[in-house]
Design brief:
Blueprint lengths: L1 E4 L2 E4 L4 E2 H7 L7 E5 L2 E3 L8 E2 L4 E6 L10
Parallel strand pairs: 1-7
Antiparallel strand pairs: 1-2, 3-6, 4-5, 4-7
């Protein structure tokens, strides 16, 4: 099946759960947020939420760092 993953066409066997897709991509679920068709998916729902042909998926990772300004 074909999906849109972070704006790019991506092909995978499907349908597939969010959890399985992250595993395929070697992404740790606890380090990302996932949006499926403009809806944020809760981490507890990754294993039960299916991604189907034509769906749009955005995977956003969190990056730490930076420095607090002195006030």
């Amino acid at each position: 099946m074909k999906i849109r993953l972070n704006g790019e066409e991506y092909e995978t066997e499907g349908p597939v759960t969010v959890e399985a897709l992250l595993r395929q991509l070697d992404i740790h679920p606890e380090r990302v947020a996932v949006e499926l068709n403009l809806k944020i998916i809760r981490k507890v729902d990754y294993s039960s939420t299916l991604i189907n042909d034509g769906d749009s998926v955005e995977v956003v990772s969190f990056v730490g760092g930076g420095r607090m300004r002195d006030l």
